[in-house]
Amino acid sequence: MAIRHRLIDYSDGDVLLEGRLSHDDAIAGPRPGVLVSHTIAGRGPLEENKAERLAEAGYAAFALDLYGKGVRGETLEENRALMDAQLADRASMQRRLLVSLSTMRDQEEVDAGRCAAIGFCFGGLCVLDIARTGEDLAGVVSFHGLLGAPGNTAGNRILSRVLVLHGWDDPMATPESVDALAAEMSAMGADWQLHAYGNTMHAFTNPAANDRDRGTVYDAVADRRAWQAMLNFFDELFGGIRRPGETR
After folding, report:
1. pLDDT of residue 34
2. CB atoms inside a 10 Å sphere around CB 239
3. How many C-beta neighbours within 10 Å does residue 134 have?
4. Residues forming beta bridges with residue 17, ordered by sequence position
5. Longest CA–CA separation in the chain, Å
6. pLDDT tens-digit map of 108-130
7. Which of 19, 107, 193, 233 is buried most, with the most CB atoms less than 10 Å from its CB?
């Protein structure tokens, strides 16, 4: 087994973007693809590590880019400005997400008919928005995602299965917003499920998160449980991945 990574330039209109594909070259032919949507900080080590772990599990994983090639903030305030610019026009953001998904589907390692998306924090909201557009992909997984509805997808029908992995003490996604998401998902006909982890804050999958005042704290137990929940979900979606030399 050798995990390979490839940087891929792609465009949304005149905006140049750069994603990163990870896959195991010991697996022959296309395999399910997983789009990985980034946090407020843009595509970086967190998302690339998650994509590598997905590649080790037998998937082809594409860490997308919403901000632009080489565009990253140096401070939280700069990153928030980049994120807010996306959130200010959710329809435009959704278009860029779908361009990213299409780019992943075009890669030879990816089975274009068997794709999912995962996202972290801001990225969790992004993959929920992909589902809200009515895009036909197998499933989406939000890890400690923001939950607010975009305002332009009411009346759509969600075709993707939806898994929300949520820290119950997340100050950025309150119990009230969870209730609102449940009502929204049900109204849109989604096959949805929610796993809530008690005594767990925002960013619980990010080992670098350690700011209790902001409510962003890593939790190794919740991180492990959430990753396993995602793998179980993908087994349900794709029937499991058989690695080279593995028997079942």
Report:
1. 98
2. 10
3. 14
4. 10
5. 50
6. 999 999 999 999 999 999 999 99
7. 19
